[in-house]
Design goal:
Jelly Rolls; C2 family cysteine protease; alpha+beta; thiol protease; eight-stranded antiparallel β-sheet; Papain-like_cys_pep_sf
Length: about 650
Amino acid sequence: MNMNQMNISKTSQNSWISNLIKPTIYLVLLIPLSLFYSCSDDDGVPEPPPEPPYTSPASVRIGDDITNVPSAGVITAQYTDAPSGSDISKIVDGDINTKFVTSHNKFYILWEGDEEIAINYYTLTSANDAPEKDPQSWTLYGSIDGKAWTRIDQQRDQVFSKRQEEKKYQCENTTAYRHYKLEIQSNNGGSDTQIAELVLKKVAIAIKYWNINMPAAGVLTPEFADFPQGTELGYMIDNNADTKFIIPHSNFYIMWSGSEQAIANHYSLVSAADSPEKDPKSWTLYGSNDNEEWVAIDIQKNQVFSARKEKKEFLLNNKKEYLYYKLEVTENGGSNTTQIAEWNLHGYTDVSRILERSEGSTFSSITPMGKHFENRPETTDEVRTWLRTASNEPTITDGDGRFQWVEHPVTLYPFGRPLPADIHQRGIGDCCAVASFASMAFVHPDFIQSIIKDNGDKTYTISMYDPMGKPIEVSVTSKFLSNENGDHFTSCGKNVVLNWGTVLEKALMKYRHVYWKNYNLGGIPQQEVNPLFTGKGDLVYCWGPGKLTNEEMTKVVRTGLAQGYFVTGGFNKAQNIGNQGTVTGHCYSGMYSSDPYALFAMRNPWGGDGEKDGVLNIPNDNRIPPTIDIMLMHPGSASEKSNGVFEGYIPPRW
């Protein structure tokens, strides 16, 4: 074969190989290109891609209409492996027939709220099947920043005894966190874990020591946590009858656990503004010191609230201290839901250690009236007669003739009964005396009415005690200290109406004319006022400014008022409280405040024409309380008429 033939043959061979390879290359190129396209139906419409097995995102935004959690926020599962229809949102949807599922037995669930809330109650509900997938051990944490975590509750070896069972857990958390983490450490043996419902709530209410509804600091807890949002337990102790606590039960309890033992001697319930069928009707108040053995203190059956926002009050014959009190409602007006506007449980705590630090004593071994009454003139028959004769007026010692006794009309009780508003100090410098009168009206108004007799002839007879504590009577006319124009400048009430306070001030002048040889009341201390009417002046407690903490001062004032003591005090520094100012060298009456955020109230005996009536609500700060001095005086015979006071002072309208 010559070379030309060989070349031709090689060319033919290459052509054959080339013809063979080209289709093969084309085929190889076409195969991978076809992989980028789906198969088509006969109608030429492409099929949608198959649904992936897992579709749950890690996080779901929850609106404020969801009641499982206390606010709007975001709930997050650690893993994104929840099957379709069982994502993390199902755990807070309020439906026990749905469930959250994850293919892990160790994982966490995060809740980030839109606001910081002190969660102290949570529930877990088992799913509808597969008990081996139930959670068994877990820990609940709280965090302010989502980084540093604090353990709130821990549970081990929990067993759900049936399907869709709700397990409830209360925890003593008082810190408001924005982030909460439920960390599941194990389940009941399954490869997957499932939970039907998770509920996080602020159920138990931490009560501060200044709350006026309860006898001391502590925690208030309901039996059930399924109350509607916006009607939580706190609305029952906010001192506002326009709000209310609602619970979808007719049989339930509310428990107060105190930070210390307290003696409850009075309680009240206020009906809500609507739906009388939801009023409580029958209930029992219990006391306990171990939360296990309970003693029935008061039982009420078939109570009917005749009006909306009506307060029903109940006195207790209880002398025992308890750490727990429980109000158990057993029946309402016929509804499946019960609502209560206010619950007040009043009493007092042990303040003996604070009393031991009292800085003053008026004790006398001679007279129950106290040491201020020692060595006073004897009460002879002649003295008794002079005091009992109304026409005998104290001698005016001012020689310039500016003062005289002038008759003025008297309305003993302008508001129907004695009130602090009846006391307005005017031209006499007896702030301690009239502040004591106002305190007497606040704590023991019935006592005032019992010691004043209207003789019907413009004279009045007052039951009093002589310096040795023996009963006497002092009668006065309707002539009161006045200026040369006949205008009186004695204590009076609203609209310059002379009243019971004016009469007591006149009786005090006449008393001092005999036993002090001077009718002038300027600078007279409280220790020389209250005993004249109560017969008890040898038991007084007092503390100077800065001697008590805010909490100690609040406990002393409230415990004193609850036990019927007269409370007065003053300020050693002039400062503003709101738009009112404090006055130094001046005496005030101590009272409960109607402001739920105030420690207590102090009323200036100057009163005022405004609706505040001279009342200062003492704030819980480091500015005002350290400037206050406080005095408590034993009520003596006044305690026979009433047990004490538990409500804030609300000035009358005039």
